[in-house]
Amino acid sequence: MDPILWHTKNIISNENKKLHEYLWNWWAYLVQKPEKKPRSILVLKSTLQQCGKNIITDFIGDKILGKHLHYATSDLEKILGRFNSPIQARKLIVMNETGMSSAEWHKFNRHLKSLITEGMVSIERKGIETKRIKDFTGFMVTSNQDAPKNRYR
């Protein structure tokens, strides 16, 4: 755990104490309030390639929450597309290096915003009737691009 704490404090938070505290409070909320949705999106953005953003998200997702509650993808169609069953029953969804332009983020804005804030989600599988279920998912974006940061200020 010490290397993870050091990394989030010194690399991810750049020694900003308030930011470091906010990050850990956001992640703790996922565990401490499993029946509630954070209703905000956490964006880890760095202009540096390979600064360890995925090390942190994989640790939180796989080691803290468990692989069955964590889903990471760079294909937003799996989350925001018509057939979105991978998002069902997850506590943390990480959108990695999506490489989307500002225009593409704008296109998906309403749908993503509803996934982040609404307590119910429609799940559609191929050939099976759509169903609405309660949703407690927290969303994160990791990116080296400006588009997510500029969209969610």
Description:
The chain has a single domain, classed as P-loop containing nucleotide triphosphate hydrolases (Rossmann fold). It is built from six helices and six strands, in the order H-H-E-H-E-H-E-H-E-E-E-H. The protein has helices spanning 2-12, 17-32, 53-65, 77-80, 102-117, 147-151; strands at 41-45, 70-73, 92-96, 120-125, 128-134, 138-143. Helix 4 links the parallel strand 2 (70-73) and strand 3.
List keywords for this structure.
153 residues, alpha/beta, Rossmann fold, four-stranded parallel sheet, two-stranded antiparallel ribbon, 6 strands, 22% strand, NrS-1_pol-like_helicase, P-loop_NTPase, NrS-1 polymerase-like helicase domain-containing protein
Radius of gyration (Å): 15 Å
The SS-based structural class is: alpha/beta
Structurally, the number of domains stands at 1
Unreliable sequence segments: 149-153
Strand content: 15-25%
CATH architecture: 3-Layer(aba) Sandwich
What's the order of the H and E elements?
Answer: HHEHEHEHEEEH
Q: Would you give the CATH topology?
A: Rossmann fold
Termini separation comes to: 30 Å
Largest sheet: 4 strands, parallel
The tally of helices reads: 6
Shape: globular
* Mean pLDDT figure: 88
* CATH homologous superfamily caption: P-loop containing nucleotide triphosphate hydrolases
Helix proportion: 40-55%
Q: For this structure, what is the CATH class?
A: Alpha Beta
Strand order of the largest sheet: 1-6-3-2
Query: What's the count of strands?
Result: 6
| Oligomeric grouping of the chains | single chain
List the helices and strands and how they pair.
Blueprint: H1 2-12, H2 17-32, E1 41-45, H3 53-65, E2 70-73, H4 77-80, E3 92-96, H5 102-117, E4 120-125, E5 128-134, E6 138-143, H6 147-151
Parallel strand pairs: 1-6, 2-3, 3-6
Antiparallel strand pairs: 4-5
Helix pairs in contact: 1-3
